[in-house]
């Protein structure tokens, strides 16, 4: 696919795709070519037991027509929140392209095979870190974390490092995807795709900026 420079994009590039995943693929490829840092970075919002929203940055690690995948410690705040309310919203903002994509939908766990395959692809230090960090829980000091890392590194000094059972991934199965592109005078382009659920057809609506 030919990657277009941002200034070459035209109105016809937004809202002409019947499939939002095809449009996302084009935009994501351009972000990978132009965005300086972490083109796969996305903010994910969940809701805690009190109904209070919580948002943080994660990395998109896979995507296809079934949804958008990220990985985490299942015992972290977002892991616990998704266990209690398996719905989420994400936003990917590419400043260099002046674009963003918003997604909302139910969240499903990835398969053990998917999690194993991605975990095995991570750097060895990151695999050790998945064992060493009690993510989101109180830490008495940096030394305690470094000690935990050293202990787990010693345990798995050689050979394979198995995936912790408390570490896996989630797939957001979108029922809404919105594409936003900056335009002069705040008259931005906004296109929203919606559907009732996985496998159903998409409806497309252009929105006021």
Number of helices: 5
**CATH class group:** Mainly Beta
> Structural class of the helix and strand makeup?
alpha+beta
Q: Which bin fits the share of residues in helices?
A: 25-40%
Low-confidence stretches: 1-12
Task: State the CATH architecture.
Answer: Roll
Describe the overall structure:
- The chain has 209 residues and is α+β, with helices and mostly antiparallel strands.
- The chain is 27% helix and 31% strand.
- Strands 1, 2, 3, 4, 5, 6, 7, 8, 9 and 10 form a ten-stranded antiparallel sheet that branches.
- The chain has helices at residues 20-34, 77-84, 112-121, 124-132, 142-155; strands at 41-47, 53-59, 62-64, 67-73, 87-94, 99-109, 167-172, 176-181, 189-194, 203-206.
- Helix 4 (124-132) packs across helix 5 (142-155).
- The chain has a single domain, classed as Electron Transport, Fmn-binding Protein, Chain A (Pnp Oxidase, Chain A), CATH 2.30.110.10.
What order do the helices and strands come in, and which of them pair?
Elements: H1 20-34, E1 41-47, E2 53-59, E3 62-64, E4 67-73, H2 77-84, E5 87-94, E6 99-109, H3 112-121, H4 124-132, H5 142-155, E7 167-172, E8 176-181, E9 189-194, E10 203-206
Antiparallel strand pairs: 1-2, 1-5, 3-4, 4-7, 5-6, 6-7, 6-8, 8-9, 9-10
For this entry, give a set of tags:
209 residues, Pnp Oxidase, Chain A, elongated
Structure in a nutshell:
This protein is 27% helix and 31% strand. By secondary structure, the protein is an alpha+beta fold.
């Amino acid at each position: 696919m030919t990657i277009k420079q941002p200034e070459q994009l035209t109105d016809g590039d937004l809202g002409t795709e019947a499939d939002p995943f095809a449009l996302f693929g084009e935009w994501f490829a351009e972000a990978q070519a132009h965005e300086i840092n972490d083109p796969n970075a996305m903010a994910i919002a969940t809701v805690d037991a009190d109904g209070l929203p919580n948002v943080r940055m994660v990395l998109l690690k896979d995507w296809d027509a079934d949804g958008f995948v990220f990985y985490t410690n299942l015992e972290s705040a977002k892991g616990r929140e998704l266990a209690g309310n398996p719905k989420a919203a994400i936003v990917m903002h590419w400043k260099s392209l002046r674009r963003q994509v918003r997604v909302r939908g139910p969240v499903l766990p990835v398969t053990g095979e998917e999690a194993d395959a991605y975990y095995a692809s991570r750097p060895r230090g990151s695999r050790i870190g998945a064992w060493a960090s009690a993510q989101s829980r109180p830490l008495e000091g940096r030394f305690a974390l470094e000690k935990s890392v050293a202990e787990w590194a010693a345990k798995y000094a050689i050979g394979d490092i198995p995936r912790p059972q408390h570490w896996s991934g989630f797939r957001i199965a979108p029922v809404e995807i919105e594409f936003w592109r900056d335009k002069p005078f705040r008259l931005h382009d906004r296109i929203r795709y919606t559907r009732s659920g996985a496998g159903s057809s998409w409806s497309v609506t252009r929105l006021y900026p």
